[in-house]
Amino acid sequence: MQISEESKERxxxxxxxxxxxxxxxxxxxxxxxxxxxSNPKPQLMRVINPLA
Length: 52
What we know:
Residues 1-19 are cytoplasmic. One of its GO terms (molecular function) is ATP hydrolysis activity. With 52 residues, the protein is mainly alpha-helical. It has one domain (5-48). Helices cover 73% and strands 0% of the residues. It has helices at 5-37, 44-48. The longest helix is centred in the middle third of the chain and has 33 residues, at 5-37. The radius of gyration is 19 Å and the shape is rod-shaped.
């Protein structure tokens, strides 16, 4: 089964978008999960800047 050129281009575009979203969203996701799942909740400024 062969994939058409148009389908290949769409797949490449989707993978590139997914790669970009993962690249820029990974650390904010981890920070958000840590902030929402911790008990007691730290002050938001301490999460963003530990020296504050």
